[in-house]
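Quick one, probably user error.
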């Protein structure tokens, strides 16, 4: 946890240095709080119209030495905005994989059923098509196309605290193991997070995630495994006059239950910026 403490001190000092001197600078309107920048738990806020977000994450776990990197790009579809399209390209290696490379790509659609970034309650289910782009012989993919659904609920408790809740499921109709054996596989996931809005530009997060998945071990046979992580972290924002917002983040995942003994580091980096203006 030492590196996380150092990161908290560094980002606090950096942001403090950026604050204008109230005695000499005119007061500016306080920027909106950081919202759609969680790490392992999905928030129920679609992108604003005309704004695109580029998200990168990297996670490394020990003692298994498994690592995973992902790039996600989110695009709003309409002015409301009710509809959002995105894609996620993962890369992985180590752990149970016998190689390293691209994993299974996700094509995502999310619908804002209720609320938005300004509401106390927001709800946005997501459906994803999973493409079999990862090499199942190396443990990098499921070996077959799949479908994933996730329910994301966000609730504002007060001006200092926001919570997020996830529940989802994944189905692969014809997954494969390294030997080419096939079987249908089923998985499910749960997630919950608390976000303390220390300032509009500095947030502290405590996430808990649980995943249960199946792997093919013989023709028509699977084996289930579970993983659980507690993920304390911090994120902070740099806002620019042209509308660009850069949000770095760092966390220290800790395994428990079926993942007891695992420790790791998690890095997050988001670039969010307008690509068009709303016509009045």
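Nope, works fine. Designed sequence:
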């Amino acid at each position: 946890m030492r590196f996380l403490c150092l990161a908290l001190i560094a980002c606090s000092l950096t942001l403090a240095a950026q604050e204008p001197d109230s005695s000499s600078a005119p007061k500016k309107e306080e920027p909106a709080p950081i919202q759609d920048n969680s790490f392992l738990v999905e928030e129920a806020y679609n992108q604003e119209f005309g704004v695109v977000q580029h998200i990168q994450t990297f996670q490394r776990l020990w003692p298994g030495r498994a690592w995973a990197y992902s790039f996600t790009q989110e695009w709003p579809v309409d002015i409301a905005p009710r509809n959002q399209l995105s894609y996620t390209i993962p890369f992985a290696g180590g752990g149970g994989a016998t190689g390293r490379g691209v994993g299974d790509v996700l094509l995502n659609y999310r619908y804002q059923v209720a609320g938005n970034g300004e509401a106390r309650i927001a709800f946005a289910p997501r459906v994803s098509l999973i493409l079999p782009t990862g090499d199942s012989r190396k443990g990098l993919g499921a070996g077959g196309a799949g479908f994933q659904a996730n329910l994301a609920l966000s609730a504002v408790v007060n001006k200092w605290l926001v919570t997020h809740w996830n529940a989802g499921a994944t189905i692969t109709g014809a997954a494969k193991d390294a030997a080419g054996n096939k079987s249908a596989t089923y998985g499910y996931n749960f997630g919950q997070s608390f976000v303390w809005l220390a300032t509009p530009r500095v947030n502290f997060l405590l996430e808990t995630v649980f995943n249960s998945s199946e792997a093919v071990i013989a023709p028509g046979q699977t084996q289930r495994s579970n993983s659980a992580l507690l993920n304390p972290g911090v994120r902070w924002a740099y806002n620019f006059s042209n509308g660009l917002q850069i949000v770095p983040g760092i966390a220290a995942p800790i395994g428990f239950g079926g993942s007891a003994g695992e420790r790791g580091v998690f890095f997050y980096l988001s670039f969010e910026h307008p690509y068009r203006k709303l016509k009045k």
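The chain has one domain: 2-16+34-274.
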